[in-house]
Structures are given as structure tokens and as C-alpha cells.
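Blinded run. Sample ID left blank on purpose so nobody reads anything into the name before looking at the predicted structure. Input follows.
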Amino acid sequence: MKSIVVGIDGSPHSRKALRRAVAEAAARGCGVEALYVIPPPTRTLSDDLIGLPYGRAVASGTISPDAPAHHPPSRSEESFATAEAALAEFVEEATQDVDGPTPRLVVVPDAHPAEALVRASKDAEMLVIGTRGLGGFVGMLLGSVAQQCIQHAECPMLILPPKAGR
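Blinded prediction complete.
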């Protein structure tokens, strides 16, 4: 059975989209996937040195390939866990008084939000997003992710304007 995919970025627009997606899924008898994307990190030379698996910088500036006996979680593992926890909290708070299915949480690492949403639309009943998210140009009618999804989604879409519902 297909699900309704809803894009989540933590904005008030995505909160409205999530609430509407859950209500829509209840009416259609399908599930909901709450999709959050972790964008690719901005990399620096020190990030490359610190992030090397089993590598470590030494005083001379060389890299040791010796694996440590125990290594802490990588930055990507930490950011994934943090994103998953934040998404769970956001979904629980936003849907506590909405009748419908409990959304399945989907965290996509190292991707562009529009690409991940378009990819998810291939197997979706519907794609639900807000007109804009947390991006920079507040006066725009549609954000860049919404524009890309409109052009490339492979399922019907519901785009909620700022004044739609709660």
C-alpha cells in the first residue's frame, strides 16, 4: 500500500503539511511517511582529517591508518541520531490531536531536500509540502524545494499555503 509522503524541515509550514497529510491518510486509508533530509555537510580540510575512518592526525601532520580499539560515533552517525530524535519529537507534538495513522519517520542523510522528496514521490500516493520552509527568501511565494517538487514529482501533490489550517 502506498503512503502519503510529507516533507518536514521543522518550519511552521511543514507542521501544517504534516497535520494535513495525517488527516488525508486517515480519509484515504493509507500510511504517512514524515521525511526529513540532512543536507550534505560543508567540508573543510580539518573536517577531512577528523572525519577519516580509523584515521587520526598526529603532530607531524601525517595520518595513521591504525584502527583504534574503540572509536566514538562519527559526525554523520551523531547527526543522523540527532535528526531522528528531533523528527520524532516534532511529529509527536504536531500530530497529538490529529486523528489518523502514526507517521513512519524517514531521515535521509546527505541529500538535497527536493531530490529526496522527488525520489520518494515515485512510490507515493501523494506528496504534501508547505509552500516554503526555513530557506532564506521570506517574500517568495514558493520556496525552491516546492518549485522543484512541482516540476519533478511523480505523484499528485498538495502544497499548503501559509494560512491553511493550523
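Unblinding after everyone has recorded impressions. The two ends are 28 Å apart (CA to CA).
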